[in-house]
Known about the structure:
The chain is of the alpha/beta class. It has two domains: 6-145, Rossmann fold, CATH 3.40.50; 149-209, Arc Repressor Mutant, subunit A. It has ten helices and six strands; from the N terminus they run βαβαβαβαβαβααααα. It has helices at 15-27, 42-51, 68-77, 93-101, 115-125, 133-147, 155-165, 170-177, 181-195, 200-209; strands at residues 6-11, 34-39, 56-59, 83-88, 106-109, 130-131. Strands 2-1-3-4-5-6 form a six-stranded parallel sheet, sandwiched between helices. β3, α3 (68-77) and β4 form a beta-alpha-beta unit. The chain is elongated. The mean pLDDT is 88.
Amino acid sequence: MEEKEICFLLVDDHDLVLQGLKRIVESSMPEVKKLVCTAATGSETLRLLETRFFDVLLLDIELPDMSGLGIIDWLREHDVQTKVIVNTMHEELWFIKKILKSGVDGILLKSIHSSKVAEAIRTVLNGGEYFCSYAERVRGMARHEEGAGKDELTTRELDVLKRISEGKNTQEIARELCVSVNTIDTHRRHLLEKMGARNVADLIMTAVSKGIIPIRKC
């Protein structure tokens, strides 16, 4: 009986990283017949995904022409059962949470040892999930937060929190959201209570640490 070929698609816009990943995949699991393809852009990735089925997609999220999350959405929309392992350099809490919500099979940070790449591939091919230790901690934190429904922020509270983090005062927020100043004051109070914050600075720091709002880059 002919051995089944396992097809891999490796995606990264840095050629050095891409070639390193290719060598790791080609040298791992020597007992398995493999086809390894590479892509450096989102459009190139989608073209390859449209031409054939890949068992494993090792994907960088930040690509020059589109987000890797858009590629994951495409796979889900077309009901493609490719195993997806995200390989990223970004360790921001909110970013890892966003990737987790996309339903991937694994998350690796580019700072990990190369042996973990082969380990992750073996795991997902065998039907499991593989999350590096940091991503696993974030996943546990997210599950805990989901269980605390009473502390979940409403859509309007998130709107207010976003504007507070942008440095806007109560009057400005009330004007933008077309509500009274008293209403915004009430939302502020609820935000402080739910987040266990002492003041606005503490509120923003807590929201960033929980991944509710992203870290603002200069």
